[in-house]
Amino acid sequence: MKTASTLKSLVYGKLSSMVVSAGIIVGVTSSSWAASNLGASFIGRNDPTDVLFRTDSAGVFPQTWWNNIDQGGTTFKGTSQSLLDDGGNFTNVKIVYDASDAWVSDGGTATPNEKLMKGILKANPNPDCAPLNNSDRIRLTITNLPPTGVYNVVVYSMHNGIGAEMSVGIGATTYYISQENSFTLVGSFVLATSTTPGSYADANYAQFNNVSPAGDGTIVIDCFKNVICPQIADGIGVPGIQVVQVSGPAYPPNTSTCAITADPVGTLTVEGSQVTFVVADTAPCRVQWTKNGVNIPGANDETLKFTAALSDNNALIRAVVYNNVNTNVSNPALLQVDANTPPAFTQGLLKVEQWQNIGGGVGSGGLSDLKTNIPGLGVTGRPPTTTYYVGGGNVPTTSPNVDSFGDRIWGWIKPDVTGDYFLFIRSDDSSELYINQTPVAGTTNALPDVQAALEGRYRWRHDATRLAAVHRHNTCQLANPDPRCERVHHGQPCGPPRQCDNAAKINHCDSRAQSFLHRWSHNDTDRGRIRNPMAVQ
Q1: Which of 338, 359, 380 is the last residue of a domain?
Q2: pTM recorded for the entire structure
């Protein structure tokens, strides 16, 4: 990552020309002025989905360019970065917050208004009935406002759980609110009307009109929990505030520099898939994403998402992060896009070897019966009763029907596109999946030895009698990656997937293709799925 202070003048000149061509002026502020709004949303804790995007329009006075304030630390006291107004202009207005907790309310996050009302800054009285250190209070101080300005101030109200009662006041005016817990359930904004002490009425916001700042340019908002013993609710919550300018001069301009704290990371995908790039930044900023040096229209959030086309292969994705003081350009993230080639087995078929009359065991017992017949380490075994081939990855039901049998089904996969791999097994009764871990130079990998493979590293089991106990599956990687690899799905998925958690290695993905083995036994109608994602690199 490079900041403006380390950029050469020539680089800065090229950057400025690139951004200006898209209609964005870097490093300057607008000379015109009109009354504007400021919106601050507390994102709370425990739910990253309640962050408002730049283009999300929310609030009693609908606006975009909400400022997300992350107060989910350990003290819940601090100062926000300088706020952007509803036009995306950089101001020097900040919010000093003093609370004792943060959390999320009980509603959803499907709409911008739900996001706004989801995260909450909280006051949790401690001790419950005799709170100390102002733990029953949330104080919000809006700073750096022009003292001659006049504003309408909106304080939003929401809590997690029912029964919370909050008073919210600015100057001599106080409203008494019986807090709601889910904006999703209510579905609309409800104005606070009760100004009678002790008379708490349902509402989810209070509006204070024609508020003038103090001489030092501050407006102070105090919210108190009505302490009831024993407590009905653990605290009170404020999800956000809005400052609506009625009259007065423009807000003072921001004086803080912005910076990139984490660059976007390159990724590999298949054409038609959605890709995501994220840049992390600090201080007040705006973002413009570029692809191969050209601005991406409408890409102005810290998170960039779009559907990758084959023509995007080898594109360089950058984030330009800037404000009225300085400009930063992220290091490029390489986007690699592979053709969405249909998956295939090498020869298009699988070989089925079936042993009959192996015993009446079911579940893991059936697998043990089958393994005594398959040659391998320490086991002589015997020839299969019958052998045949099937096209693709599905083995049809035995016809005519037989009992007490087991199948070994095997073949090779040659990945032609680098990417993630999902192998599924499904069977009527227990089954195991084996993947050869050992490269054989110049040849196709040999079949795995079912007698030597270690469960949790070389094989994955679906055992209908042990579903609750078996969760040891694998994330595997190619040891010698080839640029030609392909997403492969084997069998039919059903039931809930269980992720792998141990590391292992799969071999080369060129002409020495991967070999794998599926084994099925019978006597159980329960179905399940094991999924093994392989990250091909």
Answers
A1: 338
A2: 0.63
